[in-house]
Write a structure and sequence with these properties.
It is a single chain. The protein is of the alpha/beta class and about 400 residues long. Helix content is about 40%, strand content about 20%. The protein has a 7-stranded mixed sheet, sandwiched between helices. The chain has a 4-stranded mixed sheet with strand order 1-2-3-15. Strand 13 and strand 14 form a beta hairpin. Helix 4 crosses helix 10, helix 11 packs parallel to helix 13 and helix 12 packs across helix 13. The radius of gyration is 21 Å and the shape is globular. The two termini are about 40 Å apart. The mean pLDDT is about 95. The structure holds pyridoxal-5'-phosphate. Pyridoxal-5'-phosphate binds next to helix 5.
């Protein structure tokens, strides 16, 4: 028997650490691009668990692969080899063109790895230990202390100071601001190829190429965070692949495991050899279960030609959201690539997001206070976009009425 929703919520608030302001919905199961709550109500999901559920919910092939691995072997530790990690690793290298991969348990840990690579690379060159890393304002790289140190958000950082020293912040898409904080101690630049939490801002080609050149000139590492924009979401397997330059190191997570917690950092060239035995480790990371998940995800991307699909349906979503912007004066801007798009409003979007969820049964997420972010499962079709737009319009109109 199902309990009353409110009872679940009360128990959650009693037991779970209060770090989130959650919406009053208790999800119970998912199917394709829909979620169902404990009362059996159906929701259209354009948030995908924050850009995680690329293949959608209850994907048979994916579930099957996990069940097989579950019955075989879940964990061994990294004192030994395991087959799924080799297979997932090779597939990820093939998709990215990188040379080495390290599997992590989360996005933030993948960022930690990238920061360690940059530091280690500088240390190997005999730069001592007094080096600097340049990060971007309005970035988001995660909540661990290292990742938080490069997250350009005072509100997140302030209570936990002092953070990792030697981090300098520049303005995203402003090459001069990067040059302004560059010093002889700079050993790397870290940024999202498309800023996600900061409001869906793709890097301009000029900026990404400019930073790549600066890094080359000064023998520093370019580290791209592809945790949200990677895994096909931008219409390329990795968003940087659209720019004609490649990073020295990159991070992946979110959609890599389709809901199974797995991330990775990857590197090529001089960055690939910077780390030596003993420098880094993890107990769970890269275990057979999560790697079987990542491996199957990568197989299904190829089998279903998912990246091509994202391009096509992303174009359609773009047209539809352009129409929404034209229709409502309160929508100020429309940005993004593929199935990672955002609409910026003249006012905070929380009331629209809440109305969409509770009245329209449409799951949307915000990015910052004024942007609605559209990061649906990558398997959506045109009619899903049409249905989403109908519900979005109703939620916007309710939001306007409540202004
Ligand atoms: C979500 C996210 C992270 C952090 O990932 P976690 O798995 O929550 O640690 C880092 N970078 C970007 C760009 C993200 O979107």
């Amino acid at each position: 028997m199902n309990m009353e929703k409110q009872q679940y919520i009360d128990r959650a608030e009693q037991a779970l650490y209060k770090v989130y302001n959650r919406f009053p919905v208790v999800f119970d199961r998912g199917e394709g691009i829909c979620l169902y709550d404990t009362d059996g109500k159906e929701y259209l999901d354009f948030g995908a668990g924050i850009a995680v559920m690329g293949l959608g919910y209850n994907c048979r092939e994916f579930n099957e692969a996990l069940k097989v691995q579950m019955d075989k072997l879940c964990h061994t530790s990294n004192l030994f080899y395991n087959v799924p990690s080799i297979e997932a690793g090779e597939k990820l290298l093939k998709a990215s063109g990188m040379e080495k991969v390290f599997f992590t348990n989360s996005g933030a840990e993948a960022i930690e790895g990238l920061l360690k690579i940059a530091k280690r690379y500088a240390y190997n060159k005999g730069m001592g230990t007094d080096y600097e890393i340049i990060a971007m304002r309005h970035s988001f790289h995660g909540r661990t202390l290292g990742a938080l140190s490069v997250t350009g958000n005072d509100h997140y950082q302030e209570p936990f100071a002092p953070l990792v020293p030697g981090i300098r912040f520049a303005d995203f898409n402003d090459l001069d601001s990067v040059k302004a904080v560059w010093s002889e101690k700079t050993c790397g630049v870290i940024m999202e190829t498309i800023q996600g939490e900061g409001g869906i801002y793709p890097a301009s080609e000029e900026f990404l190429k400019g930073v790549r050149m600066l890094c080359d000139e000064h023998d520093a590492l370019l580290l791209l965070d592809e945790i949200q924009c990677g895994m096909g979401r931008s219409g390329h397997m990795f968003a940087w692949q659209a720019y004609g330059v490649s990073p020295d190191g990159m991070s992946v997570a979110k959609a890599l495991g389709n809901g199974v917690p797995v991330g990775a950092f990857l590197a090529q060239g001089k960055a690939a050899s910077a780390i030596v035995p003993g420098d880094h480790g993890t107990t769970y990371g890269g275990n057979p279960l999560v790697c079987a998940a990542a491996s199957k995800v990568l197989d299904l991307f190829e089998e279903w030609k998912l990246v091509e699909h994202v391009r096509e349906i992303g174009d359609y979503l773009w047209q539809k959201l352009e129409q929404v912007m034209d229709q409502y004066g309160c929508v100020k801007a429309h940005r993004g690539r593929g199935l990672m798009q955002g609409l910026e409003f003249a006012w905070p979007v929380a009331p629209v997001v809440k109305n969409a969820l509770l009245e329209q049964r449409l799951v949307l997420i915000s990015a910052g206070s004024n942007v609605i972010r559209f990061v649906p499962p990558l398997i959506i079709e045109r009619e899903d976009v049409d249905e989403m737009v109908r519900r979005l319009q109703a939620a916007i109109e309710a939001g306007i009425m409540n202004l």
